[in-house]
Design brief:
By secondary structure, the protein is an alpha/beta fold. It has 10 helices and 10 strands. The strands form 3 sheets. A 5-stranded mixed sheet has the order 8-7-9-6-10, with helices on both faces.
Length: 274
């Protein structure tokens, strides 16, 4: 009986370590299957959004996913997901990596691994011009919307006194809610709000972006914590993109001079300091 118990124990230990090794070798699995599955939002211009002509998903996040897949020598497969589903999809193994407006927070960093920061986002508040709000603090006690499960939602509750948060699944729904007067303001990435402001300028309901920024957040590529080989590989790719100038080219393509946003790149790819 004792011998049998020891054998059973050995089998259990082997199975446990075998499972851990398998989980920790996702990089090899990706290369073997020949595909990198990247979770992205698909409705967050300029990061991931449908091309008006082809309807294929394109954008800043998509190009970074493509660069990682190319460096790994595999094909890119995009999986469109909601804000709230980002971490569950990753943890359940339905995507290999996340490039989905994924702002760093201490709480998320306990669940998943972040790559080095490949984008830095000002989180801003927008409101209808007719309401004459000037600063985020002017929305104290008001109804402010944000994507469900996002850092924008958490930031609204943290930085706007006595706010009532209202959540929606995606950015277009937030824009409609603001224009229809269902909420008093919206918290989102500055870039999305710049595009909104441009689009709404000649509409019956123009909007303004309130100053100063509500908070600033670094974005990283999300991965599972145990995938050490994949994490290193992704960071090596990002570092190479910074050195070669490819990262800046992607920024300029979607956000730089001549685009709707007309921004200058003021950050570099570097480790996120928690």
């Amino acid at each position: 009986m004792r011998k049998l118990s020891l054998i059973s124990f050995g089998i259990a230990v082997s199975a446990l370590f075998g499972t851990q090794l398998a989980r920790a070798d996702q990089l090899a699995d990706i290369k073997q299957k020949g595909t990198l599955v990247c979770g992205t939002l698909g409705n967050a211009e300029p990061f991931s959004f449908p091309n008006p002509q082809t309807r294929e998903t394109q954008g800043y996040d998509v190009d970074f996913c493509g660069a990682i897949a190319k460096a790994l020598g595999v094909k890119l497969e995009l999986k469109l997901i909601s804000v709230a589903a980002r971490i569950p999809e990753l943890m359940q193994g339905r995507v290999d990596v996340l490039a989905a407006n994924l702002g760093w927070t201490p709480e998320r960093a306990q669940q998943i691994a972040y790559s080095d920061s490949y984008f830095v986002s000002n989180q801003m508040v927008t409101a209808r011009r007719a309401d004459k709000y000037k600063t985020p603090a002017d929305l104290s006690g008001k109804r402010v919307a944000a994507p469900k499960g996002s850092t924008s939602e958490a930031g609204a509750r943290k930085y706007i006194p006595n706010v009532t948060t209202v959540t929606f699944q995606d950015a277009p729904a937030l824009f409609v809610a603001l224009q229809q007067g269902k909420v008093d303001g919206v918290v989102l990435s500055e870039l999305t709000l710049v595009k909104w402001k441009h689009d709404a300028e000649n509409s019956p309901v123009p909007i303004d972006i309130l100053q100063p920024p509500l908070f600033v957040e670094p974005w990283g590529i999300g991965m599972r914590k145990e995938e050490t080989a994949l994490i290193k590989q992704v960071n090596d790719v990002l570092s190479g993109m910074e050195k070669s100038g490819e990262a800046k080219k992607i920024f300029d393509k979607y956000l730089g001079t001549g685009t709707t946003y007309n921004l200058q790149r003021t950050f570099r790819i570097e480790p996120i300091k928690g």
